[in-house]
Backbone:
């Protein structure tokens, strides 16, 4: 059978959708699976043994009429594939339109009425009321397709080439490495850099074996440099210096990750690493590190979670600023002691 999965973005969302792929391939060995994925995220799944083909979604290029002949050729190829199942895990109007254009024998997606995407599906799967996390919603789609659900799979299998490249940039030298991830797409999901710096100072004082891998994209360099200066001989700044596969291998070597609500948080959870997550405007029960949602740190305010990308509270970012470095340090030590 041939299956198309539509889940183009973002990094964390795609990672959270991977259990469905793993279970599908475990229980339907005959499945030939294609994945429609944002072009910038292709390195995440390139060479994945469970995928037969990646279909790049060039969101920005679709704005230019010059790209339309190429984009339409991809749609014609989708239709020619004659998919048995089309699975839309994005649940938005754009992905539903591509699901409809793919013209598969059976289309299933998320019951998310915000943009009317469910109208394009043969079956729309509601979010489980007792398990609201995104991963559980995607697994509900698996159940609806008759795929057995369990956790006996490798979410992010090791990639030897990426691991070797990470080794050249970062020999661990037997230290206890903790990941620090201070970035996030929304500014109001970022615990302040000075709080991260104070956390590093406190943890460095607690244990001489601790070292800190500072993670992020090239746009996070200033944040990570602020943190590095708190303990320059104990930190390595990886911001903008790793590919996505290398970032995964760096996280694989870390004992724990301290992070905002962002993509690397989900990578660490998928690697089954302890995660100390810091939440402000978003809901950890829906998008927290899977299996570790209850341990997310929050500062209670009547406005949180607001689910908004801009803070309108009288004291800006109070929901995050109210989380002290000392409380995060205690959470780190407690998680490492388990």
Residues:
């Amino acid at each position: 059978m041939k299956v198309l999965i539509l889940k183009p973005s973002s990094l964390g969302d795609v990672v959270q959708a991977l259990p469905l792929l793993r279970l599908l391939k475990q229980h339907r060995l005959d499945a030939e699976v294609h994945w429609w994925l944002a072009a910038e995220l292709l390195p995440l799944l390139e060479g994945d043994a469970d995928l037969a083909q990646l279909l790049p979604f060039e969101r920005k290029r679709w704005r230019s009429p010059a790209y339309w002949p190429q984009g339409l050729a991809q749609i014609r190829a989708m239709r020619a594939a004659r998919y048995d199942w089309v699975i839309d895990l994005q649940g938005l109007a754009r992905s539903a339109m591509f699901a409809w254009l793919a013209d598969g024998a059976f289309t299933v997606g998320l019951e998310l009425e915000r943009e009317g995407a469910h109208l394009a599906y043969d079956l729309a799967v509601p979010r489980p009321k007792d398990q609201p996390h995104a991963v559980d919603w995607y697994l509900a789609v698996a159940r609806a397709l008759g795929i057995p659900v369990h956790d006996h799979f490798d979410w992010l299998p090791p990639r030897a080439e990426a691991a070797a490249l990470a080794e050249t940039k970062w020999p661990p030298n037997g230290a206890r490495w903790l990941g620090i991830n201070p970035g996030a797409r929304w500014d109001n999901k970022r615990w302040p850099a000075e709080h991260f710096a104070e956390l590093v100072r406190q943890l460095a004082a607690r244990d001489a074996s601790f070292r800190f891998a500072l993670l992020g994209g090239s746009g996070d360099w200033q944040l990570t440099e602020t943190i590095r200066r708190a303990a320059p001989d104990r930190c390595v700044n990886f911001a903008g210096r790793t590919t996505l596969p290398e970032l995964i291998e760096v996280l694989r070597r870390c004992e724990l990750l301290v992070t905002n609500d962002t993509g690397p948080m989900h990578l660490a959870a998928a690697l089954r690493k302890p995660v100390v997550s810091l939440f402000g405007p978003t809901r950890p029960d829906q998008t927290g590190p899977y299996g570790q949602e209850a341990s997310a740190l929050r500062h209670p305010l009547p406005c949180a979670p607001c689910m908004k990308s801009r803070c309108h509270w009288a004291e800006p970012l109070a929901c995050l600023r109210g989380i002290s470095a000392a409380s995060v340090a205690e959470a780190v030590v407690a998680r490492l002691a388990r």
